[in-house]
């Protein structure tokens, strides 16, 4: 997580550039997620929300939106252009229950899981499961394994399932690569969509 915080200090945040370049495709995923649910939509947690690029988009679609990020500077920026219906919290996605956020019906993870090591990924999965209501969904963007693993840690479907044993992996779809740049555009980014189950997989 130190590298992540350092990137903010240096002003190097390529994930924000990607969010702008792929805005239309990301918006379509948010629209689909919202359209498949009854109203009211419920509560959404934006994991690793950064400076609040996506949390307001969820709120605009009717979610009660909360963003959490490890970097105080990012949360300060998010709050500075946020609105009264948004909540931003400085917190660690690997210890979510300690943040006292309550439960959620939707979780968004755009690159947060990606930046964690194996132990931290399991911890995030445990925390999301603890905060997830029955039938909650998780939408996650992560890069696939590649020869560039030393630069960009890859994520496989098996690793996602291992971290979320009480969740059903419903779909895996290729992500838009416009705006990623090298080397991320060589890593086969994927969107994972999971649903919270009442019992672990057997």
Write structural notes for this entry.
By secondary structure, the protein is an alpha/beta fold. Helices cover 33% and strands 24% of the residues. It has a seven-stranded mixed sheet, sandwiched between helices. Helix 5 (72-80) links the parallel strand 2 (64-69) and strand 3 (86-90). Helix 6 (118-131) crosses helix 7. It is globular.
Helical content, roughly? 25-40%
Gyration radius from CA atoms, angstroms? 16 Å
Shape: globular
Quick check: average pLDDT?
Answer: 86
| Strand arrangement in the largest pleated sheet | 3-2-1-4-5-7-6
Report the biggest beta sheet as strand number plus sense, adding barrel if it closes.
7 strands, mixed
Query: Which structural class is indicated by helix and strand composition?
Result: alpha/beta
Poorly predicted tracts of residues: none
Strand content: 15-25%
**H and E string:** HHHEHEHEEHEHEE
Oligomer: single chain
Kindly state the number of beta strands: 7
Distance from N terminus to C terminus (CA atoms, Å) equals: 33 Å
Tally of helical runs: 7
Topology:
Elements: H1 2-10, H2 14-21, H3 23-35, E1 43-47, H4 55-60, E2 64-69, H5 72-80, E3 86-90, E4 104-110, H6 118-131, E5 132-142, H7 157-163, E6 167-174, E7 190-196
Helix pairs in contact: 6-7
Could you list some keywords that capture this structure?
33% helix; seven-stranded mixed beta sheet; 7 strands; 202 residues; alpha/beta
Please summarize what this structure is.
The chain is of the alpha/beta class and 202 residues long.
């Amino acid at each position: 997580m130190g590298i992540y915080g350092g990137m903010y200090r240096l002003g190097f945040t390529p994930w924000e550039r990607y969010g702008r370049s792929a805005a239309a495709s990301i918006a379509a995923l948010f629209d689909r997620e919202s359209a498949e649910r009854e109203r009211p939509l419920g509560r959404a947690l934006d994991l690793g929300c950064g400076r609040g690029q996506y949390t307001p988009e969820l709120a605009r679609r009717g979610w009660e939106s909360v963003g959490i990020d490890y970097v105080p500077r990012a949360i300060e920026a998010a709050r500075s252009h946020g609105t009264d219906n948004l909540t931003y919290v400085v917190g660690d996605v690997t210890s979510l229950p300690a943040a006292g956020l309550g439960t959620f019906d939707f979780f968004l993870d755009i690159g947060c899981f990606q930046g964690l090591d194996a132990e931290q990924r399991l911890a995030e999965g445990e925390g999301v499961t603890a905060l997830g209501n029955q039938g909650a969904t998780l939408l996650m963007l992560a890069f696939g394994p590649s020869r560039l693993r030393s630069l960009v840690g890859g994520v496989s479907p098996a690793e996602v399932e291992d971290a979320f044993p009480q969740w059903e992996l419903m779909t895996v779809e290729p992500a838009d690569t416009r705006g990623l740049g090298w080397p991320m555009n060589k890593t086969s980014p994927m969107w994972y969509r999971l649903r919270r189950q009442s019992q672990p997989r057997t």
